[in-house]
Amino acid sequence: MHIVVNIIITIVAYFLGSIPTSVWISRAFYKIDIREYGSGNAGATNTFRVLGTKAGIIVFIVDILKGFIAVNLIHLTKYYIPHSGNYINIQLLLGIAAMLGHIFPIYVGFRGGKGVATLFGVICAISFYPTLMMGGIFLTTLVITRYVSLSSMISGFSFPILIIVVFEETTPSLVIFSLIMAVLMLFTHQKNIERLLRKEEKKANLPKLKKKNRNFCP
Predict the structure, then answer these.
(1) Is 197 exposed, middle or buried (0-12, 13-18, 19+ CB in 10 A)?
(2) Domain segments of the chain: what residues?
(3) Nearest CA to 88 among 179, 181, 1, 173?
(4) pLDDT by residue for the chain (218 residues), tens digit each?
(5) What span, in angstroms and rounded, lies between the C-alpha atoms of 201 and 194?
(6) Which helix (H) or strand (E) holds 155?
(7) Angle at which helices 2-17 and 85-103 pack, to 10 degrees?
(8) 168 Cβ contact partners less than 8 Å away, ≥ 6 residues apart
(9) pTM for the complete prediction?
């Protein structure tokens, strides 16, 4: 029975991750396929670039929620001790299924995004405080460099360091997952790395603080 339930929630996690947020929004409200514009990626970053801030924020939040909710499907089971090794293993399985769904979505021809936002939701559900620190690293790097891709890679590389060194995590599956995640960042951002080396990567348009005009009387 346990195996059957695990298989069912894993399949549900995949279908949940497969929800192609950016593609559906671009088709429904902009009459285009986001994958045919910009970087050709069906993720939040390309949505910000092509469709603007409002659409980008919606895609970013929904993609995070896909990973977060997928991991929390484990609460449909009643036979795992929270935070035990087996509990974390199933959480990781659900998270990986959601990420595969995002990268290879069944609804739109298996052409999805890179899974960064969904991955953020996954690790947030599993390790909240390391993820919170990762978010801080991402935002700091983004403000300094204005490169979303570089910020994503640096924050991704920080995860295993935070997990292993700072929080002294000993669950083997979580440690291995954090290391694999860091390596995958290199593969999923290969084109971005090439553009960064050629100095062709586009910077994010961050909102600027408006200075108030003050009229001083002589």
Answers:
(1) exposed
(2) 1-126, 127-204
(3) 173
(4) 688 999 999 999 999 999 999 999 999 999 999 999 988 889 888 898 899 889 999 999 999 999 999 999 999 988 888 888 899 999 999 999 999 999 999 999 999 988 889 999 999 999 999 999 999 999 999 899 988 889 989 998 999 999 999 999 889 999 999 998 888 888 878 888 998 999 888 887 666 544 444 443 44
(5) 8
(6) helix 148-161
(7) 40
(8) none
(9) 0.84
